[in-house]
């Protein structure tokens, strides 16, 4: 019998280690022959710790499991959830990027290969660099960090740049509130990130890579470092990748926790040992990136999606999706929801279906008031926009953004003026200080919202003006996108601003 208990940090925060210890002790006491596997998470966070038992006829799920449940779990008397794949939240998904996450032992390369791992790289090794880049272009993959820039065009720019050394940088500085897809895949399927980086290196002619990983993710750091060691030992990384005569190696570098270091040029400065301030673009990192050399900077999910594109073919991937948003989106559902977690689906599902049906509405049972999509710089989407399909262009047209695909749900008790103030405060705290609209504007923004809260109606047009200035004049997305949450709160929930005014009058 095999028992799976996730090592994912969300599962651990909910008691997975204690459950694993209780299982080991009880199995020893009973003298049972059981193999305990610490897998990644299946992404159903409200069911964690989600334990799976495989007695030879499929994996049956139990959750949330406590250490006290373990005797009944082993007796077979604990009420279960049935096969994992049949749980409605899971059954509705299209898992391409996350296909192996939660299924395999994350640090078992043989398990990885047995589930399709390395098939993409083996195919890429038969291709020329131009063919590799063309495959990514044909898949329609766009940057999953937030900007949605076509990955194939980025790779092509680096491929065409002439330089003695090029680099692949994996942006694992996942800083958006309510997001965890990067962390979850690094903890649950680290080899897919490594494989994606190797394919990127072969495609653009880079032989070195870095994973820039935030210090707040100690478990992901541990798993990624262990995976890199195993990959080197197995010849997946090094001077002779899988005996091909081609070289690629990478190392994990840990960031110090600044949100702005998720911005690619600030990240590159930090990687070079400098202060994490934003660089002006141009030059693009694709032409002058790490140490002034052509560099692909891609988000974890973009790189982790590359292996499945090569394994199944660009057309297979591109056949999912909507309009120019091809493939799947790895949504992270958080906040006040009944069922939070990682939900991978083809682009095109409507926001309302996701929030009301998949996530089951709010955890408090109260009506949904707003959903912030795209992290702390994303717009608050009101219920009236719930028919917006998940797609880059569709969200743009609705005044929002998909960003890194995080969703934070709020119920009707939420004070939207307070949320607008929080956005300005977040920007003020995290600003790198390089440009005035952001450095000064965010502080003035907090003060202006405080004036509105005190009943000063004349401050509303000042806030609108300030947002326009920040949007147009900021050097990077931190200052430039902070107006999204602020203006969406003001536009869609004017009562929350007016109520304060009336109360003060
Ligand atoms: P951007 O639009 O300036 O650039 C997108 C990417 O395309 C960059 O890597 C850029 O270098 C590259 N690029 C543009 N033109 C190119 C060309 N001709 N050839 C090659 N490469 C080219 O956007 P930026 O500032 O990189 O990202 C902003 C986004 O980041 C926002 O949409 C926001 O949602 C997201 N974000 C994500 C966070 C997270 O935790 N994942 C945190 C904060 C923001
Ligand atoms: Fe720095 Fe803010 Fe300007 Fe970005 S917008 S460069 S974070 S000061």
Automatic annotation (TrEMBL):
The keyword Coiled coil does not apply. Belongs to the complex I 51 kDa subunit family. Keywords: 4Fe-4S, Iron, Iron-sulfur, Metal-binding. Its cofactor is [4Fe-4S] cluster; FMN. It comes from Pseudotabrizicola algicola. One of its GO terms (molecular function) is 4 iron, 4 sulfur cluster binding. The keyword Isomerase does not apply. This is Formate dehydrogenase. Residues 417-462 form the NADH-ubiquinone oxidoreductase 51kDa subunit iron-sulphur binding domain. Gene3D superfamilies: 3.10.20.600, 6.10.250.1450, NADH-ubiquinone oxidoreductase 51kDa subunit, NADH-ubiquinone oxidoreductase 51kDa subunit, iron-sulphur binding domain. InterPro entries: NADH-UbQ_OxRdtase_51kDa_CS (IPR001949), Nuo51_FMN-bd (IPR011538), Nuo51_FMN-bd_sf (IPR037225), Nuop51_4Fe4S-bd (IPR019575), Nuop51_4Fe4S-bd_sf (IPR037207), Thioredoxin-like_sf (IPR036249).
